[in-house]
Amino acid sequence: MTLFHFFNCAILTFGPHAVYYSATPLSEYDTLGTSVKAAVVYLATALVKLVCLATFLQVSETEVFDPYQEALKAMIGFIDVAGLYYALAQLTHRNISQNHKFQAVGLGWAFADSVLHRLAPLWVGARGLEFTWDYVLQGLEANANLVFTISLAALGSLMWLRKNKPKSLIPIIYTCAVIIATMPSITSYLKRVMGWHFPKIVGFELVTSLVMAFISCQLFILCQRPSL
Amino acid sequence: MADEKKSKQRHRVMVLASMYPVVALMLILVACVELCDAATVVDVYRLIQYDISGVPFGSRFSSLNHHAASLSFQRGADLSRSVLILPLRELDIGFVQDYISQKQSLGGLLILLPQTFRPGNVGGGSQSSENDGFRNLLAQLEKLLVHGNIPFPVYFAFENEETDAMLADVKKNDALGQQATATTGGYKLVISVSEPRKIASPTITNIQGWLPGSRADGDSNQLPTIAVVASYDTFGAAPALSVGSDSNGSGVVSLLEVARLFSILYSNPKTRGRYNLLFALTSGGPYNYEGTQKWLKSLDQRMRESIDYAICLNSVGSWDNELLIHVSKPPDNAYIKQIFEGFSNVAEDLGFQVALKHKKINISNSRVAWEHEQFSRLRVTAATLSELSTPPELLENTGSLSDTRQLVNEDAIIKGVKLVAESLAKHIYGHQGKDIKIFADDSSLAVNPFYVRSWLDLLSQTPRVAPFLSKNDPLIMALKKELEEYTAEVSVQHESLDGSFTFYDSTKASLNIYQVASVTFDLLLLLVLGSYLIVLFSFLVITTRGLDDLISLFRRPPSRKVKMA
């Protein structure tokens, strides 16, 4: 029974990535190499982030929301964005259209993130006798994270790879990108200051991810028009 | 072309072959389902398991791995794979009795005791009438469990918030008729301990302290001796909780205080009496005072013959107005008369009464109800000072679960100590009938209430069932050290408990309470997730490739044969 639960949570956490890959034209164009490269870049970014966090952050015993610490964490979070930039812009990919490039990079990035952050707790925790909703919620969070990452990758590709953008849309693109990039800080603010519990936070993340995905989708379509 | 195919096939086979050990390793890893930490872990104490001459008593099993059930279960439900949780507050003795006597199968029994019975719990003198009711109920339950042969594990635990919450949940589920099983979820109680094993050669340890009297110059005769004896070990339903504050912690404390007082007197040669004093802390009390018998037999015969009389202390901690002196020699015996008169005079001065009770020894009966009977069987005059009026049955009044610190009254012990000390002093120094108080309050020989209290508190937190006390147990070392301070010579005697009593270990364990979900829940979740992934797949295919592609996935590709032809 407990292994069953582990299996359930695993397919909730990692299933959507596989489904996304196979459902969209990504599988037709065989963009697996891009995703793998993006995953490797994520690993390197995570390492750099860890080192920075360990060096600059103080560990507080209580769950107090310290603005300076949170600001520092947000700044270190921008290393994420830098990593994404590197994966999108600097790495040489096979000749794939921009449309698919950002999807592949986002997918690889999100998959690496899920594996690194969620596989170990799942393996250790979900196999026990005790039943908690935590792992199901974690899986839902992984789904939201996937949508966020793909939206961020879309906005990133708009920012760095597309040269001719309508001037009016540029500030919107940048605001959306900033919002997505600072999602971790926003959730920690909600958890500590407003005292939201995990289910509420996961619900909020899911809703926000869908909204952000919709907005970035619209932006992408709008930006595509002039080049047509 | 054929070569390529062959090499490809070989390559494939080799890859597969190399995967086998990896797959096997993964399977092994997956199969080790670790029980990770439960949300709730509770300390539980097992019912005692023992044999008397091969007849088994107590609970015969120790490990537990079943779902929880409460008293609100539907009549006729099968409880053989459930653990019944019984709080003492709602206990129905008749129900338990029926269950045991009809030998109905039960997965296990967990009895929840109120926090007031916890050994370290000193406070809470209020609500005493409620507590008295619980005490009686607990005593009845204990008698039932200790003398029965129970084929399932029985554990005692103390109520706390987590157990209360769990019990409320279980009751709610049971009332709805959904008994917890593997398919309906609920709580699972797991105690994983190894099977209980016999304790090989349990030891009983007697500690004696010898305070010699002063010999007049030129007197070559052996000085007479007076012995003060108390047995310090206990026996109860849960050996890890048998602290026996009254039976016989009160006796031990009284003995130590009397030893302390007389050691002060005897330290000065001018006030040293013409009697030797022998203090003995014996073990094996619940088992027909076996330790006392062995100790007496080990004494030198001359020493034994020099004992004028012995006073045994048994349960002197919770009396009000009357103490009883139990004897086995007939009351018109001259020695007995003398002893009784001395005690009753002192008692009158102190403001209470002593009464004499005579019980003949039946030599053919192996049951030894009072400690003094062991002395009498070896022709030593002895009496037992106790608050109990009737001789206790085998394994009763020996430190049960309800015998906690709150049951004992320090003032009663102090009065008892004064009685014993003054009576002994009168006998030793020979002021029969004169109204002299040697151990008066506010004197340097006053009974020290703080000493009494601190030792009583210590004993009320230390379970003292003899088979579970090792030879160098800290308690035995402490008692020995204490006697060494007050007496001149201390000797410790280790004996092994006789063959008719056998004990089994595993007295304390940790209970893990898991909240488990049913198999139906998991299946449901799988269904939901499966449909979610399918919907996601279709959605993505439709939005990125178009509806036609989705439909074409399900349509069979047109037959190749037709195309080729």
From TrEMBL, chain A:
<keyword id="KW-1133">Transmembrane helix</keyword>
<dbReference type="Pfam" id="PF09767">
    <property type="entry name" value="DUF2053"/>
</dbReference>
<feature type="transmembrane region" description="Helical">
    <location>
        <begin position="144"/>
        <end position="161"/>
    </location>
</feature>
<keyword id="KW-0256">Endoplasmic reticulum</keyword>
<protein>
    <recommendedName>
        <fullName>BOS complex subunit TMEM147</fullName>
    </recommendedName>
</protein>
<dbReference type="GO" id="GO:0005789">
    <property type="term" value="C:endoplasmic reticulum membrane"/>
</dbReference>
<keyword id="KW-0472">Membrane</keyword>
<feature type="transmembrane region" description="Helical">
    <location>
        <begin position="71"/>
        <end position="92"/>
    </location>
</feature>
<feature type="transmembrane region" description="Helical">
    <location>
        <begin position="201"/>
        <end position="223"/>
    </location>
</feature>
<feature type="transmembrane region" description="Helical">
    <location>
        <begin position="168"/>
        <end position="189"/>
    </location>
</feature>
<dbReference type="GO" id="GO:0005886">
    <property type="term" value="C:plasma membrane"/>
</dbReference>
<dbReference type="InterPro" id="IPR019164">
    <property type="entry name" value="TMEM147"/>
</dbReference>
<comment type="similarity">
    <text>Belongs to the TMEM147 family.</text>
</comment>
<keyword id="KW-1003">Cell membrane</keyword>
<feature type="transmembrane region" description="Helical">
    <location>
        <begin position="104"/>
        <end position="124"/>
    </location>
</feature>
<feature type="transmembrane region" description="Helical">
    <location>
        <begin position="39"/>
        <end position="59"/>
    </location>
</feature>
<keyword id="KW-0812">Transmembrane</keyword>
From TrEMBL, chain B:
<comment type="similarity">
    <text>Belongs to the nicastrin family.</text>
</comment>
<dbReference type="InterPro" id="IPR018247">
    <property type="entry name" value="EF_Hand_1_Ca_BS"/>
</dbReference>
<keyword id="KW-0325">Glycoprotein</keyword>
<keyword id="KW-1133">Transmembrane helix</keyword>
<dbReference type="InterPro" id="IPR016574">
    <property type="entry name" value="Nicalin"/>
</dbReference>
<protein>
    <recommendedName>
        <fullName>Nicalin</fullName>
    </recommendedName>
</protein>
<keyword id="KW-0812">Transmembrane</keyword>
<feature type="transmembrane region" description="Helical">
    <location>
        <begin position="523"/>
        <end position="547"/>
    </location>
</feature>
<keyword id="KW-0472">Membrane</keyword>
<dbReference type="Pfam" id="PF05450">
    <property type="entry name" value="Nicastrin"/>
</dbReference>
<keyword id="KW-0732">Signal</keyword>
<keyword id="KW-0256">Endoplasmic reticulum</keyword>
